[in-house]
Structure formats: C-alpha cells, structure tokens
Amino acid sequence: MFVALMAHDKPGALEVRQENRPAHLNYLKSSDSVAQAGPLLDAEGTMIGSLIILDVPDMQTAQAWADKDPYGQAGLFQSVTLTHWNRVIG
Known about the structure:
CATH class: Alpha Beta
Number of helices: 3
Radius of gyration: 13 Å
Distance between the termini: 15 Å
Oligomer: single chain
CATH architecture: 2-Layer Sandwich
Order of helices and strands: EHEEHHE
Largest sheet: 4 strands, antiparallel
Number of domains: 1
Structural class: alpha+beta
C-alpha cells in the first residue's frame, strides 16, 4: 500500500533541517520503502516540510518508518500526517 507522509516544519527550524539533512537523505536512500520524496517549499523556494510516498504493507510499518526518520528524531516537524494514498497516474 502507498502512504503519503506529509510533514510541516516548525516555524524558524530551517537550521535544524539543514543540520539533519545528510542523515535524512541517507535514511531515505537506504530504505526500500520510499517510492518518492522531496521537500515542500514556500513562495521563496525555502524548504518548509516534506512529502514522502512510502510503499509499505500497512500503516504500522509507515509509522515505524516515520519514527526513525532523522528529521523527526531531531524535532524538526510541527506536524506529521500519514494517509493511505491511491496512485492513479504514474
């Protein structure tokens, strides 16, 4: 099943994002569960969150994946949602 992980950064947390970005990218690249991923951007092009599409067997696996994300462990996010997603195109 596909799960969309939508995370919004805490205000003023760009430094936390930048400090933890290498570990986060390594985590993404080392995972067989990531189908697509990329940052959310504001009008100026500054990273303000993340969208990650996970291909996992169930929501519990998606939650476990999210719990291990270095960004989440660093306290970057103001909110994180996990939503079952149905890919229609792509």
